[in-house]
Amino acid sequence: MFAHKTIVITGASSGIGKAAAIQLAKKGATVILIARREALLKEVVDDIKALGGTAHWYVGDLSKVEEIDKLTDKILSEHLVIDVLVNNAGRSIRRPMEDSLERYHDFQRCMDINYFAPVRLIRNLLPALLQSKDGHIINSTTWGTLLPAAGFGPYNASKVALDTMANTLRMEMEGQGISVTQIHFPLVHTAMSGATKSFRKLPGMTPNQAAGWITKAVKKKPRAIMDTKTRIASGLYFCFPSVVEKASRLLPFSI
């Protein structure tokens, strides 16, 4: 199942990406890791190799198109076939619109990392994924694309864009050997979410638990993965939007 797969993972130097890289490598996959922080990325590769796994690493800033192109050119020169692309790297900003009037760059930064970077990676790697005959694109997204959440306008907007693009791509690639999975994570306790102090005391997933969802996605190739609460709540939101929006204002992470 995993032994003959070559898997590209972005944001692999820490958090969910690091945990997923280790889990998948332990199952026999060859992992290709991308992140900005070279020292941390090399540590992940060393950990994987110490466990007997196979890992390659590439340093780059995914907010810059020219760096993505250089990265993917180098990856494709060394790995002719890519079986799985995991778009995990992301940026989260929690700030109400009223406080963002002088911070238009909040929206630009989220779109650069959460939407344009995955799209560029998919564009560049799609021929190699098609060459696999069993290609798979996995995108880390959020429950916030399915439900209302005050204060996350830039972040959720970028992830909604990714969801919509992924749904279109899934339909276009049907019959061509490409699967597309959206993982709607709830709160995951990482350095990114930990920047909001109020989140630290809320129940959430560990990076290892979240990585388990990625491993499950690689194995089963579902259209989407989410927890039961998100699935039920999104159904209620479709039927009773006003009620759910009022209830969401009472949640501890709402602004």
UniProtKB/TrEMBL annotation:
Keyword field: Oxidoreductase
Pfam family membership, one: adh_short
UniProt cross-references to InterPro entries, sorted A to Z: KR_dom, NAD(P)-bd_dom_sf, SDR_fam
SMART domains: PKS_KR
Annotated ranges, domain Ketoreductase: 5-189
UniProt keyword Oxidoreductase, yes or no: yes
Coiled coil start-end: none
Keyword Transmembrane: no
SUPFAM superfamilies linked: NAD(P)-binding Rossmann-fold domains (SSF51735)
CDD domains: SDR_c
Family according to the record: Belongs to the short-chain dehydrogenases/reductases (SDR) family.
Protein name: SDR family NAD(P)-dependent oxidoreductase
Native organism: Litoribrevibacter euphylliae
